[in-house]
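Hi Y.,

Following your request, here is the sequence exactly as I used it, all 399 residues.
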Amino acid sequence: MAEIGTDWRLVDGVLTAWFDTPSLVEGAAPAGRIVELSAEVAVDLRATGLRVRLGSDKDAEAVSAAARDLGATANPAVLQELSVVFESPNPSGVGGFWQRVLDYAPGDDGGLADPLRRDPALRIRQSTEPRPLRNRVHLDVVRPAAAVEQANLGAASGPFGVCHADPDGNEVDLVPGGALGEGSETADWQAVFSAMACYRITSPTQQRDLAAAAAALADDAGFPLLIDLRPGLVILDSGKDQWEGDAHGLELDFTDLAGKLQTAARELGATADPALPRFAQLFLDAADVAAVRAFWIAALDYTQDRRAGVSDIHDPRRLNPELVFQELDASDTERRRQRNRIHFELAVPADLAQTRLATTVAAGGRILDESADRRRIADPEGNELVIIAGAVDGPPSDA
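Below is the corresponding structure, written out as tokens. Let me know if you'd prefer a different format.
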């Protein structure tokens, strides 16, 4: 598997592959086979294919064979993973705050990781560099109302009464979600910017069958549902705002589809866990929103939201977090000169890093420093992205 051109790449330390398929139903077939092959696999099923992440390379050959047998084609060129880095003089205090916000687990690198392996990892690194003003970057996090209350962050501030700050002053809007609808037919669903239902399952067979049923219902409705398979869990997700008609642009009432999905899940014996839904997105303040947004579209290979007047950009496969841009007072020159204590890291396969770097620079990026496997780049207003080249080889087998 060390040769460029094979199915697998090491992305952010995880052996990862993407397989193209033409529909959810045709992706659900290899997804169902794969979860029966590997106990710790994470599969993200989309309308255009599926991403597979493994704990070691011992199952990689069998997964590739299953995907090929069922008509899926490997496409490593689309692989990437975006994470968030905090530079702090107080890593433990900052880490404790964000652990309560996100309900993350301690990561191997001293940061925090999503136990569901859906939302971006947080890296927290020691720094003594002064930062006199607040960052131009903040996070939005939406969780069920009970989970927001349990986080116990104290009094909120801001125009919507949801803003909290960590010990360094880095901000998060922690927003309570709510029920998707008023009726029992969508009782399993939460509206957390996305519409989301998380189902506990008891066997890979049950997981396979729920994924297949959800894929069939979504394809019949013409809706690009996100179906994430984790050990003991199936997550059904509309994607941000996509349950709303002006966002998806389809002749579809998503709550009707959600009700059918709920019925299918319950008939298969799956049990909803209402505490699990979570949505996280990244906010950037910019004086020239158009220029900054164009940079990040190119750097991340993202797509602009279809709605007029909406500044969001998103991963076309909805595997990485959304970015939202809001206008900053252009006369606030002191703040614009400030170096953020928050930046982003983008892990890409080693054989694609140079191409991504060139694309990013062509979109207005300025290289600040680079080494063999890391390139730090500033956008037109100084927000920073580090492109990390992952190894092409997989990790050693533990077989």
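Residues 182 and 255 are 10 Å apart (CA to CA).

Thanks again,
Q.
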